Amino acid sequence: MRIYADRPLRFLVQLAGDLLTAGWIAAWVWAGLALHETLGSLAAPGALMESAGDGVSENMADAAEQVKRVPLAGDELAAPFSSVGEAGASLSEAGQGFQETMATVALALSLLTAAMPVLFAILVWLATRARWIRRASTAAALRSLPDRSGASLLALRALASARPRRLLQVSADPAGAWRSGDAEAIAGLADVELRRMGLRPRRR
Fold first, then answer.
1. Would you state the pLDDT for residue 25?
2. What is the pLDDT of residue 56?
């Protein structure tokens, strides 16, 4: 299987494209992580609310227990402390909810920020590279065939895909030369196809 071209210029272009794609993906992943960290820091007020609520709830619960020891009026005196303790618990729950909401928002936005550009890059890059790898691998396999069948098939691919100007440089009637079995013209057309794919010409 051919991953990169034989010809230096085509190889450098493919390598640069792969590196740019990897850099693009890394940049957007970093951006998603940075956004997640930034949004995650916005949950700090929720942590403060939870801590404050827990502190109020615990202190008021202790105070209520102490006040309940007062003879006769202990329960009545403890009621306000218990109410404040319940308010502290509500504050703590609100802080927890705020943190959970911010964590969900941070995760969703960071994934959207990174996933869409990365998915687009992978789909475009993968489609382009996979198409070239498939075609170049087939061309390289045909090039290695010892008989003329490989050259003939490469020449046929050149007739179907190469620019007419390139074909006319090989023969004034490239299609006619291929049909008549002109060995020199077929070899030339095969080399046109190999060069078009960025591969070395056939050894003659």
1. 93
2. 67
